[in-house]
Design a protein that fits this description.
Shape: globular
Distance between the termini: 36 Å
Largest sheet: none
Radius of gyration: 23 Å
């Protein structure tokens, strides 16, 4: 087992044998089931309020497209498997919503009081944040288990999965709220408040739990992991509760919380995401010399694999040489090198148990297979000046 500071010579060259590596992704039947649940909820709303549900579906979908594209942009350096990204969104839009509703109804039934206002405040400010953040966060806990753990390599990954779960939850919840409007004007006002002012709200709340997951992954033992997870969950609940409370205190409080709390917090989240992606790039760049020493990549390839801009240039050149298939082959090769770099990083940080050591060999084989499928790499190596 390698430990932090292990020399790059710890890389082991692997014979150039092609070996198909099974990628982690949600089974298609699971995605279909989750999409069916979300679809049935929307069909039920349409039967109750066709106009409101139609408005909510169109406007909420448009807003969430922006949110999803923002997270896909953040996920460019080490893209996650598309099926897992879809799984995250559908989890938020189906399981998380259903669990939240059922748990909220159960907890509300335990409140014994004759004051409806008190029940409403507790439901909105206490119960809703507690159950909704737990339902969304369960997906991130699921990602910490089994082979899915291999896909959560950085803070960026945690932010992306947290954001997409939140986007899925917000998409369906916004449709529910807009469809419940008593008039067309009421539905449009709800849409403006939720979709124009705070489309990233649910993603932002769940981001705190995603940060907790990231720090938990750097701890050993269940008790050590529990601390960051609990702190992340509590931060998500508290921020969610403050936001919900502002909606009950009146328009002035709502806009005040938005301007002086939500917007700065959103800005900090953007900075955190960008810095995390830069750290991904630094991690890969630090592992490339060891890959060159082990014969896993060539010195020429190392000049462009560690930079997103240079990688895009290499893919563009490959496309000019051999068409779109050649460009896609180089893109797959670069993605596989990045995956290998993160496995090596886990070992160098002292988390190289036998399972991770075996994964290192698998990923090295996959790099060779990706190279064999991209003969255009030889043309790139002969290009004067490199990418």
């Amino acid at each position: 087992m390698a430990h932090p500071g292990a020399p790059q010579q710890a890389w082991l060259p692997v014979p150039p044998l092609q070996r198909k590596i099974r990628r982690v992704g949600a089974p298609l039947v699971v995605l279909i089931l989750l999409a069916t649940v979300a679809g049935l909820i929307i069909v039920g709303l349409t039967a109750l309020n066709p106009v409101g549900a139609g408005i909510g579906l169109v406007l909420s979908s448009l807003a969430m497209v922006v949110v999803v594209l923002a997270y896909i942009w953040l996920d460019r350096f080490e893209p996650e498997p598309p099926r897992l990204l879809i799984f995250a969104f559908l989890w938020g839009a189906s399981i998380a919503v259903v669990l939240s509703v059922l748990l909220a109804l159960y907890l509300e039934s335990l409140i014994v009081t004759g004051e409806s206002d008190g029940v409403s405040w507790v439901s909105v400010v206490v119960i809703a944040p507690v159950v909704e953040e737990a339902a969304k966060g369960t997906f991130l806990l699921f990602m910490m288990t089994g082979r899915r753990r291999n896909e959560v390599n950085s803070l960026t990954d945690c932010l992306v999965y947290a954001g997409l779960v939140g986007a899925g939850f917000a998409w369906l919840e916004d449709i529910l709220y807009i469809a419940s409007g008593e008039s067309l004007g009421g539905s449009l006002l709800t849409a403006a408040l939720r979709l124009v002012m705070a489309p990233f709200a649910h993603s932002l709340f769940t981001t705190f739990f995603g940060i907790g997951v990231y720090f938990a992954l750097h701890r050993r033992g269940a008790s050590a992991k529990a601390g960051p997870l609990l702190l992340g969950y509590l931060a998500a609940v508290v921020t969610h509760a403050l936001w919900n409370d502002s909606s009950l205190l009146g328009t002035g409080w709502y806009f005040g919380i938005y301007l002086y709390w939500m917007m700065p917090l959103f800005g900090l989240a953007i900075v955190l995401g960008v810095q995390s992606r830069r750290r991904e790039q630094s991690t890969v760049a630090a592992k490339l010399p060891g890959m060159v020493h082990a014969g896993l990549v060539t010195p020429n390839e190392a000049t462009w694999l560690g930079s997103l801009r240079h990688r895009k240039q290499a893919i563009s050149q490959a496309t000019r040489y051999g068409g779109r298939p050649a460009g896609k082959a180089v893109k797959r090769f670069a993605a596989q090198v990045v995956e290998l770099a993160f496995v090596r990083d886990r070992i160098d940080r002292g988390f190289g148990d036998p399972r991770v050591q075996a994964l290192l060999i698998e990923e090295a084989y996959a790099v060779h297979a990706a190279r064999a499928a991209a003969p255009v790499l030889r043309a790139l190596a002969g290009h004067r000046g490199g990418p």
